[in-house]
Design a protein that fits this description.
This is Succinylglutamate desuccinylase. By secondary structure, the protein is mostly helical. Helix content is about 55%, strand content about 0%. The chain has a domain of about 90 residues.
């Protein structure tokens, strides 16, 4: 366990959340893009004592295989969603027989993007106070 000296931490223990959130640019820590864990694991006790059941079987069948962990980063995920939306729209333009189904898929992606934007607005409103 390491001990930090008094001047090494940009956040002081006696400062409130307002001072941390609204602090000057010099006091703010740089935001780094932190990658997710490579494999999400259950706790060791859950692995030891849990008996396999129907829910475990269904989850193992439905859970997607993620070959690239960087897709779990928000920016990369929404970039992949936009790419999928563009491909679906291009496929709908080419395939007249399945165009209605593909346009519904595009509408679902648009709806999810709009809901995420609304969530971001609420989050910013809460932080701003």
């Amino acid at each position: 366990m390491s001990v930090q000296r008094a001047g090494s931490n940009p956040f002081k223990f006696d400062s409130g959340i307002d001072a941390i959130v609204r602090g000057s640019q010099a006091e703010q820590m740089p935001m780094a893009e932190v990658g997710p864990a490579w494999v999400a694991q259950r706790s060791l006790l859950d692995q030891l004592y849990a008996l396999p059941n129907l829910e475990d079987y269904l989850w193992s069948q439905v859970a997607p295989e993620i070959s690239e962990a960087a897709l779990l980063l928000p920016y990369r995920f929404w970039q992949a969603v936009e790419s999928a939306r563009d491909r679906l729209q291009a496929a709908a333009a080419k395939d007249a027989r399945n165009a209605r189904l593909l346009q519904r898929a595009v509408a679902v992606l648009d709806d999810q993007s709009d809901l995420f934007g609304l969530l971001q607005q609420y989050r910013l409103a809460l932080v701003a106070g």
